[in-house]
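User: For a benchmark we're assembling, each entry needs the component sequences followed by a predicted structure for the full assembly. Here are entry 17's components. Please fill in the structure.
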Amino acid sequence: MKLSKNFTNPLAANNPIIVQILGICSALAVTVKMEPALVMGLSVTFVAAFSNLIMSLLRNGVPSRIRIIVQLVVIATLVIVVDQFLKAFMYDVSKQLSVYVGLIITNCIVMGRVEAYALGNKPWDSFVDGVANGLGYAFILVLVAFFREFFGSGQLFGMQVLGDWYTPNSLMLFPPMALIIVGCIIWVHRSFNKDLQEK
Amino acid sequence: MALNKNSNAYTIIYTVVMVVIVGALLATLAILLKPMQEDNVLNEQKESIMKAFGAEGESFDKVTVGAIVGGTQFVEVKKDADIKAAFELISNRKALAAEEDALPIFMYEKAGETLFVVPIVGKGLWNDIWGYVALKPVADNMEVVGIIMDHAGETPGLGAEIATDDVQGQFAGKQLYANGEFALKMLKNGKDNRAYIDGCSVDAISGGTKTCDGVNSMLENSLKKYAPFFETLGVHVNVNIE
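Assistant: Structure for entry 17:
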């Protein structure tokens, strides 16, 4: 039971972006189109899952004085692995994501989960926690990118879906619109989750 | 004896072992993936060149890779290793800017016309800018067929606009020289600017003046080296003896 709750919690009730408000900056930067948003979401999922797994395996041996450094080394290594693979196999996407792949290292979700969860839980639980948090992040990213690409350029995954009659609303392509869309998603989400509402 | 995980010795050994493992892992990965990454960069260069020629999506095989030797002589580069070296020179922006002996050039036949692409490199406001300009000889001048420009860190929305089709599209049909002087420049348009020459000048980007100045020096400095070769095609150039 714990495992399934571990998995579903970060997807909605405790979503890293819309509840914990973590990882917002990359959510603004890579959501103009759906493809980079999806790749970014999957990259963060990969890094979060494996950094949680590795840190959980190492958790009994890490000297507590340097545990933050060890976490950073593990996360940075995984990010470099992702970056190198994208450059080799998905060159166009890696160009669109540019510096944001490298900045996964500083994504609060990844380090937050390692520090808060992986250091005190078993490897498999930690791995599931990382996957779920990454997917929760990816889901919001793709949702924001859906609205921005659909209304901003009349396309989805680069394919024209709206006809010539539609004048693209380029306001949607500006970074502030990502914040406004995230705000709207939070609004809808809280209206269904009464316990999140502040009195 | 229980291991003291908070002792200095344990911490130092732990760090050293970790760094060695991670270093070896990343080095192996980088070596394994390098050929694929290099292919991607090479393909991108070839696509940019075809785009500058106005033949986007067409095969690079029809393009003749060449070099201008001794200032005026076009020499075809045939060997694969030499072609690879030419592209490596273009990737290495510092070396390309300093190259004087064998200037890389690409030749392509399109609708009975001979077009040339020359790589260009320079400095923008914040960082390097580079690109490819496609040219064709017209009477005693060189005309721009197309230009591709990219940048490493110009300001988004201002200087970074040089990488957009809107700005690059304005270069098509412009001529390099006015009365033998290099005149392809991005300048403020308007009646009060006498330096603006219709047919040579391109409307500069408001707010991106420093980047446009960088584009102007990039074009002038990179194309200056090819001027003696252009003269052999019948172009009238005043070569300044400094």
